[in-house]
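**Archive record**
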Amino acid sequence: MPVGRMLAPYGPHGPHARPAVRAAGPDGTALVLVAHGSRDPRHSATLRSLADGVRSLAGLRTRVAFLEFDRPGVADALRATVAAGADRVVVVPLLLSRAYHATADLPAALAGDWGVPVHTTDVLGGSPLLVTALERRLLEAGSGPSGRDSSGVVVAATGSRDAGARASVAAVARALRRAGRRDVLPAYVTGPGRRPGDAVRELRARGVRRVAVAPYVLAPGLLPDRIAAEAAEAGADVLAAPLGAAPELVRLVVERGAGAVAG
């Protein structure tokens, strides 16, 4: 299965143009991007690349922190950010849904007095930019554009016991279908719901001749590797890359931060 390669962002007037409002807050404002975390070094490397893009576009000091499995933790990142001179911190959760990590783990990690105001933005999930980023990754991997490609697509997420989190993945699948993809199914590599391999086989049973798997994940790691393994075992034709530092993700993080800075 071909795996997607990085494409350059479109020009300044294309769909991936820089946002009109930059996160140009006070000099003392800093961003802390909080991810789930993984023991896989590819995970942190990918998210630090995303942070580099955010720093360049936003013009704000930007750090990455992790809820578990990696360093720095949230508390260490906040202390370092304040020690570096920040007089306000905007925390952007690099999370695709409002599941347990967003509603319990992150608030617990942020509890306390940090000596400066700390604002938390909404999670990344729910933005149409995520659908555009998935389309980008599918194109890079060799799946044709929406409306002109007969491929079926499996939107493969890591999974959750939270019904709202699973519903958010299903909503992304519906958005891809509305954009012109022939058949799109959500799948989850853990928890309730159909597995990615089963989704590939279900599309085959429907008569879909070419099937692409689009991992709905931010960065490589153990569970994304399981998505790839299931896709290969089921005979998927195309495997897209994780969302990573796609221009749409950079723009989305900056927009989240810009909203908090403006507020």
